[in-house]
Amino acid sequence: MRIDVLTLFPEALDPFFSASIIGRAQTAGCVSIRSTNIRDFALDARGTVDDRPFGGGPGMVLMCQPLFDAVEKLETEEPVPATRILLTPQGEPLNQALCRELAALPRLLVICGHYEGFDERIRLGLRPREISIGDYVLSGGEAAAMVLIDAVVRLLPGALGDEESCNDESFSHGLLEYPQYTRPRVFREMDVPDILLSGDHARIEQWRREQAVERTARRRPDLLDKWKQDKVDDSSMKE
Ligand code: ADE
Questions:
Q1: Does pTM top 0.90 for this prediction?
Q2: Which of 149, 172, 207, 231 is 20 to 30 A (C-alpha) from 111?
Q3: In angstroms, what is the span from residue 186 Cα to ligand 1's centroid?
Q4: What is the Å distance from ligand 1's center to 118 Cα?
Q5: What average pLDDT values come out for the chain (239 residues) when binned by 10 residues?
């Protein structure tokens, strides 16, 4: 997969993309990520990329021209068709199903909004898929780009050392993850549940499933309802 990120702050993103699992995934050839500064496409020597809003009001608005030029240049550089993504609190909510969908695409072009907003014609003219990482407002799309790219890259085949660890986690089956323990068996008078030391894999599997259901019911009843509905839908499809 190839991921291009259009941002005013590549220096904030690049160290993140070089570190940890994303860095390793790049070294392993699973993904190639490149950030491009929108300011490089400004037409004047001062690097102007924003302007005052028509109609008045506070703040500055990201202009069309630098962004359109940047998108068009990046897209013609390589024949692989890019899915354009605009990060904005007005977008569709990011969730695990959407991450899986994005992970199956050959190329993403991620646009980080900044300042008080962007010219509406960026939406209308570039027709990006608009995505939000949650119902709160960030000062820019960079933190959202890191979240989205992290969540997508770890799903790419070979990105995590162990394929299992990706499938088994929270949300893969629609439930939150069961509790995990490692050594020592007792820490500050807190014991590891006996069942995990029993060696009985079938019972351990069942305990983990029960824990996941119980934890989801307590913390995220909305997810549990959806999980139950999906199970009903699955079994009626098999009939
Ligand atoms: N930019 C600012 N806030 C955002 C959010 N919640 N999601 C995505 N992009 C954003």
A1: yes
A2: 172
A3: 42
A4: 13
A5: 97 96 96 98 97 94 97 96 96 97 98 86 98 95 97 96 66 89 98 98 98 97 94 78
